[in-house]
Write a structure and sequence with these properties.
five-stranded parallel sheet, alpha/beta, six-stranded antiparallel β-barrel, 15 helices, single chain, about 500 residues
Length: about 500
Amino acid sequence: MIYNDYQVWFVTGAQLLYGGDAVIAVDAHSNEMVKGLNDSGRLPVPVVYKGTVNSEKEVTECFRAANNDPNCIGVITWMHTFSPAKMWIHGLQLLKKPLLHFHTQFNKEIPWDTMDMDFMNLNQSAHGDREFGHICARLRKPRKVVVGHWQDPAAQAKIAVWMRVCAGWADAQDMLILRFGDQMNNVAVTDGDKVEAEMRLGYHVDYCPVSDLMKYYNSVKETDVLALVAEYFATYDHDAALEVVGSDAYVKVYNSARAELALRGILKDKGAKAFTTNFDDLGDMDQIPGLASQRLMAEGYGFGAEGDWKTAALYRTFWVMGKGLPKGCSFLEDYTLNFAGERSAILQAHMLEVCPLIAAQKPRLELNFLGIGVCKSQTARLVFTSKPGDGVAATVVDMGGRFRMIANEVECIESKPLPNLHVASALWIPKPNFEVGAGGWILAGGTHHTAFSYDLDVEYLKDYAEIADIELVIIGKDSTIDTIKQDLRNGEIYYMLNKALK
């Protein structure tokens, strides 16, 4: 239970046609099911039973309360018995929280020897859930449908995925992203409509003058800096020369710690969850704050390079959705290609800012020259390679009038040593293969920046796109260039028609 500040409400549909005793039985069964779900240990968010609704008034009051409760991040509905769907119309029209329709049943098997008409009238999920499903379809209500017995681990796993996505969505609804500097000059893909992003995705993107950051940088207490430097040396492998107090190398590490403390301080004071930097706008800092960005990402702050606020926000959402899961996530950038037949791959890296959560080994703290931007100098960073394994990389692009999320299933593989490239890196083969994965990404308009996760898969992104009502293009093991092109055509038609209907 890792999201204890959040709740998912469980609402059971019924009616008074079968008498008060039936409602009492429905209520008792629902309480037992909710307790069983919570006790399973498989759900990351507590489920709170909100009672049986038996009329239009009760449905509407319940959903209005869900909208107004900041701790409620989603609603699960289940029709224990037959619940006439017209009574759900106004409530569903009002509901702003994510919806999951659980098609389940209290009893696992039919009691063949004892089943009578009373039992059948009470246990009508096969009937009632279809009625509810119809009205959701009629209202074009986005929702996830999970089918399975409530004690089934597979059904619980699907609910758990949806809960994590709901947590990421709730977190995004008040996400402040600070941009220290603008995006890199003339780059299209990192730009976008910030007003539409706030309307659709919840992001609030603010420019923050680097001079404001410098006030924090110049006022950091020396005792705090020294404590953080000591933490660096205790945590990471490094050359002993970095510890020589007063040396140029030590000063660089010291100033990296100042930058980390300054960034953390201003982000906390302003209530920001993500930030971007620009290597052409660094104020008084003597180096790009790469080490600071790496460590802040590991804490959950979203990061985007060169002003890329969309990827900064998406990384934060990935981190929230994967909170408590073991493998990690990172901001990454496509850098260079390795053509090797069926094992052709893409090297993922950046100048410095790759999150240590994906490291295959203990990161090494190094000081190396970085010759880009206004501060061409020795720069501190964590160096490592990523762990092997499957993952998913995703990006959000502004298509003009709508946002498109592009997701690619990938296989991270071990790379050969890179003795002269002193950065953190990952090497992956896009699925289904290099040609289709890379070609499909380009056809879809994908960025060179991605949010990457080992723990998430496309089911998370399907749920997220459904909740956010944005286009989703998936490039995976079964994709071909033709199917990707058709998905893109279908998306264009769908969103053109949807805009025309509105």
